[in-house]
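Bench log. Compound arrived from synthesis this morning; before running ITC I wanted a structural hypothesis for how flavin-adenine dinucleotide sits in the protein. Inputs:
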Amino acid sequence: MPARTGKQLLDGLKDDREVWIDGERVTDIAGHPAFAGAARGLAEVFDLQHEAAEDCLIADPETGEPINVSHMIPRAPADIARRHRGLRRIAEHTVGVMGRTPDYMNVTYAGFAGCAHEWAAHGNEEGAENLVAYQKFLRRNDISLTHTLIHPTIDKSKGDLPRLDDDVVLQKVADTEHGIVVRGARILATLAPFADELAVYPGLPLPEGGERFALSFCIPMATPGLRFICRDSCAGSLNRFDHPLSSRFDEQDAFVIFDDVEVPRDRIHIDGNVKVYNEVMGKSWHPNVMQQTMVRAQTKLEFAWGLATAMTESIGDFGPAAQQMLGELWSYSALAEAAVTAAEANPSDWGNGVWFPDGQPLWALRACMPTWMPRANEIIKLLGSHNLLATPTWRMMNDGRLRPLIDRYLRGAKDTNAERRIRLFRLAWDYAGTALAGRVELYERFYLTSGARNQQRAHQKANNRDRALALVERFLAEAPE
Ligand SMILES: Cc1cc2nc3c(=O)[nH]c(=O)nc-3n(C[C@H](O)[C@H](O)[C@H](O)COP(=O)(O)OP(=O)(O)OC[C@H]3O[C@@H](n4cnc5c(N)ncnc54)[C@H](O)[C@@H]3O)c2cc1C
């Protein structure tokens, strides 16, 4: 089945998956109040690829059928620019608020398959072959994929690495005729209720002797024993006036329990190979997937700047404080755009003729985003002030007794009518202040591991030390007189 429609996505969610929210096992994802809005929102993303086919679709290199461009394995520098167009269209649709639209995992698995030699190291040839076959399945069936990488926190004083006697960390407990049985838990699976399949691949490295934790595989959401514990819903009502973002973009995050889950042999990409597990994410994954996620992040910052600009203009706030904060927001967006452009303009061949952007500018952006994104929210709240809460609902707007008063007392500066002003501030509140906004801020701080870790990694990964150190050394070598 080539690129799917929104309806096909929604039909595919009707299975025996075990998704729990607030004590209830949900049988109808698209019909449940906690999920209906985002189901519709994600369905629109699937429809978008047909509406904007010139940007979003390409021909499958083997079958010729239309597939989403995020499945493309870039084989030339021009492919990176082609992929950018499709990623940008998707990011624009959700204004970057949905972090895990399926293009994130599509790009990830296209990169894994393109660099299958990285997975075939240390005797893992069978895992690498399975992975390449899986990526074909993913792209040809336009699968919505969620993933979970991180071990649950039980006792931080014991460190990041799983202990060999750990009974919580996901691990293999048996071999079967057709595959393996796994048990344990992982955090978190964003998008889980709206996914067709779940991917497990390496996160933090494992200690020596940790073979049974060294696992990577992909399985259907409805696999027996797989249980998803969702967080509280952040979905607003389905009314897009009242909740312009949370009515459609609450992508959910689930704690995943593997209660003795059988994984078929052909779905396993790593089984006990600690060396591959520990090495494979340190190679081409970063420069590849960062293109997707930084295109999304840049779009989100540009949206924040646009929103803040329109918001301040609607109340005639042209003062120096507002101008300063707007300038700060614009700078984040412009710097992000410049870094993505620089990364895409200097790609390299990662082997097998597969091309990815330059990872260096993307490391810098990855290190900055966990502070820029919360700051963008703060700026919107500082600029918005009480206006963020002086925002009647659609029902009030349609009340004949209230509407004339609203039109009179809640209008904005110059020709800004009350409806425009209220829409703007509702959008801003949903971006920076609602339950969804709080969750999205946490996402931006942690989805690529914490900002602290990313800043440390940026310094460790920087490959242009020579000039920096030479600038210093000159002074140290100088004659005193
Ligand atoms: C909304 C949301 C969605 C997510 N979705 C997914 C998903 O879809 N798939 C998935 O696999 N994971 C997902 N995650 C999990 C995410 O990968 C982890 O939260 C992330 O890896 C950070 O791990 P942690 O939460 O254990 O925090 P830690 O990394 O332990 O950080 C906790 C605190 O300790 C500090 N800290 C940690 N290490 C250091 C250090 N070395 N130096 C200084 N300070 C440090 C951090 O700054 C932070 O304040 C999601 C998380 C969130 C919040």
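What the model suggests: The longest helix spans residues 285-314. The pocket of flavin-adenine dinucleotide is lined by residues 100, 147-150, 153, 187-190, 253, 439, 442-443, 446-447, 449-453 (CB under 6 Å).
ITC booked for Thursday regardless.
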